[in-house]
Amino acid sequence: MEVLIVIIILAVVFAFFSPKMLQFINFGEKSQLKVDFALINSALAQNRAKNDLLQNSINLYQLDSARVNIKNEKLFSNILQKDIKSTTTIEKQSGSWAKVGNKDYIFFTKTQEYEFSLKDGFFECISQKEICENLD
């Protein structure tokens, strides 16, 4: 009888907290994406400013030398000091980046995929407008 009461109590507690836990995880993943996005854009802005000061007309054409759609590649290594390891578009590890082209990347959350591309020295969200608005 006591075991049954404990199971019922645990079921009620789990039913109450499981939706909250999913929201918490989604919030954490989106926060990580916002931080990474800001770091990448900040590094690109710093690179543009340095080139302007030195009067270089060199544009950054690649953010890294990572291979496309390979797990554990070092992404954004040409601009960031911190390593960001990649996932694949098959694995779609939540909270991780995948390289899908020479200048194209995807960030995966449990509920969405955010697509990005390097265009004219700027790292831009190229997903649907509603999805990209979440980054501001």
Automatic annotation (TrEMBL):
Gene3D superfamilies: Glycoprotein, Type 4 Pilin
Name recorded for this polypeptide: Type II secretion system protein
Origin species: Arcobacter porcinus
